[in-house]
Design goal:
This protein is α/β, with parallel strands linked by helices. It is built from 8 helices and 9 strands. A 7-stranded parallel sheet has the order 3-2-1-4-5-6-9, with helices on both faces. The chain has a two-stranded parallel ribbon with strand order 7-8.
């Protein structure tokens, strides 16, 4: 599967801004968000809510694949602020994807879906372990992963979840080791997920300096991921030594 005829949701967001250069020159690119963004060559904007069936059907008509980035990204948000954008929006998107014959959905999960392991220092965290969210935000991502598995089981849509770390141009050494995904690696993982020959999977999506906390073996083998950022730095101190609390909401409770 190539990169043509792709819809990107959450297209005005920070992560999309780092990802969209991967689709330069692609044909039939579609972008969806609550508000329109700058005009891009060969791209068509759709403005509306993910829960709007009419908008979704128009945006997905003729689309081969979706990269789903839309949602509330705040790990500190209350469930009431997360339910519609992170749960109901994904429910609506997958129903519309099936209805419109979309072949693949690549969706943004988060390391927070596994944050309880991180909080108890169970490293390296493997992609195949059961979800263990550390907060309401992580729980919405764990739900999305479970719903995606059900769709892959009972429909013709294939789905790939990516547990993103901190998506940022740069990171401190501590942040990079705790769970960071730089833009070149973000683009490599997403395009690999669009092209991979698989039915369903959920993968850790971090750059090389985070590998001692987040196991990357299946990401590399299944998605053809070739880490770029920090891949030359094979040596260094233990990733837990003095690390910042990148996953602050994953700190385990001190209560018995």
């Amino acid at each position: 599967m190539g990169y043509d005829d792709v819809l990107v949701t959450g297209a005005t967001g920070r992560v999309a801004g780092q990802l969209l250069p991967a689709f330069e020159g692609a044909k039939g690119l579609r972008l969806l968000d609550r508000e329109g963004g700058p005009e891009l060559e060969n791209a068509r904007w759709f403005v509306g809510e993910l829960t709007d069936q009419e908008i979704l059907d128009r945006a997905l008509d003729g689309v081969a694949a979706v990269v789903h980035l839309a949602g509330n990204p705040d790990p500190g948000a209350a469930w009431q602020e997360l339910e519609e954008p992170n749960v109901e929006g994904f429910v609506a998107l997958l129903a519309a994807a099936e209805r419109n014959g979309v072949r693949r959905v690549v969706f943004a999960s988060s390391v927070h879906a596994m944050g309880a392991y991180e909080g108890s220092h169970q490293w390296p965290i493997e992609s195949g372990w059961p979800p263990a969210p550390c907060c309401a935000y992580g729980a919405t991502k764990a739900f999305d992963e479970a719903l995606a598995r059900a769709y892959a089981y009972r429909t013709d849509v294939s789905l790939v979840g990516l547990r993103f770390g901190l998506c940022a141009e740069e990171a401190s050494e501590q942040e990079a080791r705790a769970g960071w995904l730089g833009p070149p690696d973000l683009r490599g993982i997403v395009t690999g997920a669009l092209s991979a020959d698989l039915r369903f999977g959920v993968y850790n999506a971090v750059s090389w300096p985070s590998r001692e906390r987040w196991d990357l073996r299946s990401t590399i083998s299944d998605l053809g991921y070739e880490p770029v950022q920090g891949a030359e730095a094979d040596d260094g101190p233990d990733p837990g030594a003095g690390a910042e609390e990148h996953l602050a909401t994953c700190t385990p409770s001190q209560h018995p």
